[in-house]
Amino acid sequence: MPALHRVVIVVGGFGGLAVARHLPDRTVDVKLLDRRNFHLFQPPLYQVATGELSPANMASPLRSILRRRKNTQVLMEEVTGFDLQQRVVITK
Fold this sequence. Notes:
Layout: E1 5-10, H1 14-22, E2 28-34, E3 38-40, H2 45-49, E4 59-61, H3 62-65, E5 72-76, E6 79-83, E7 88-91
Parallel strand pairs: 1-2, 2-5
Antiparallel strand pairs: 3-4, 6-7
């Protein structure tokens, strides 16, 4: 069996979630790092303020969004930098 590629995704926004969802399960080991454990959909804030939308509809836990992705692990970390030569992500 070939070695898995390791991919680190920094921040679980729209782009990070899209990448995590589209990477193949069998060949990639994915770590998604975010300092929050939820994805916040901000555009409808005015709808929450006016009572048209429940606040629960704006935030979704990252782990529940990616629960079917067996190759993906969500870690609550704050990224402070990168060491590109060593291929390391530096966290707090």
